[in-house]
């Protein structure tokens, strides 16, 4: 009983901690003006042009930390504050999203694999828990196994996402430093922003893996009783 309490505490608190960490870190460094004086939009445009990505557009998006890169439309979308303000946090996030655009241009292997897994992950994530719940409550190990296999596809997608995000952050740091967008102490601050953002992906993946392992143990126990 205690082990279950600890387990559920971990899978509930870890994502919450990650979200709090990224919000607090972003809030702190979004108030630190970058010495370059460049807005997030200008940072994104500068890095894109330096890498020959003239066709990629930079647009403003609504929502808090809604920043993303869309490979289908070749658009880097930045949330309003990051788009308009000149801060260390905004620069880091803008550069990170451009990092994905550079990955796309270079056909970065993990990004290519991630794109191929998107339709599979979308289907499996929606259907997996239906089979899992029916399998558990109806004591049907076959349906539970099917649900586990579908869930595993989603877990693979999340695992593949990790190197994509870490690589984009590494590219972001390299670009910002080489182009003089951030200097000296700003490098350490930018790394903190990017590390906090990466933590959300790590937490999500850890929770997904733990849930998958728990279901595998349930299936193993159920199979022994069949």
TrEMBL record:
Q: Does the keyword Ubl conjugation apply?
A: no
Entry keyword Magnesium: no
Signal peptide interval? none
Listed A to Z, the keywords are: Membrane, Transmembrane, Transmembrane helix
Instruction: Name the source's superkingdom.
Output: Bacteria
Which Pfam family would be a valid example here? Answer: Zn_peptidase_2
Q: Where are the transmembrane segments?
A: 6-22, 193-219
The molecule here is called Zinc metallopeptidase
Q: What is the lineage of its organism?
A: Bacteria, Bacillati, Bacillota, Bacilli, Bacillales
């Amino acid at each position: 009983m205690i082990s279950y309490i600890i387990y559920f505490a971990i899978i509930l608190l870890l994502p919450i901690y990650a979200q709090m960490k990224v919000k607090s870190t972003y809030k702190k460094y979004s108030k630190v003006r970058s010495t370059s004086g460049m807005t997030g939009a200008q940072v994104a445009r500068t890095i894109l042009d330096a890498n020959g990505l003239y066709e990629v557009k930079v647009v403003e998006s609504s929502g808090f930390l809604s920043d993303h890169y869309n490979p289908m439309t070749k658009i880097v979308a930045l949330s309003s504050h990051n788009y308009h303000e000149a801060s260390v946090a905004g620069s880091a996030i803008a550069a990170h999203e451009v990092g994905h655009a550079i990955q796309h241009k270079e056909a970065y292997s993990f990004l290519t694999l991630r794109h191929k897994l998107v339709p599979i992950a979308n289907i499996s994530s929606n259907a997996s828990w239906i089979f899992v719940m029916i399998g558990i409550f109806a004591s049907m190990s076959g349906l539970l196994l099917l649900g586990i296999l579908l869930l595993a596809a989603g877990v693979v997608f999340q695992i593949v996402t990790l190197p994509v995000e870490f690589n984009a952050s590494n590219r972001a740091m390299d670009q910002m430093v080489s182009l003089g967008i951030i200097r000296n102490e700003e490098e350490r601050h930018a790394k903190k922003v990017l590390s906090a953002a990466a933590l959300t992906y790590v937490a999500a993946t850890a929770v997904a893996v733990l849930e998958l392992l728990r279901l595998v143990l349930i299936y193993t126990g159920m199979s022994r009783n069949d």
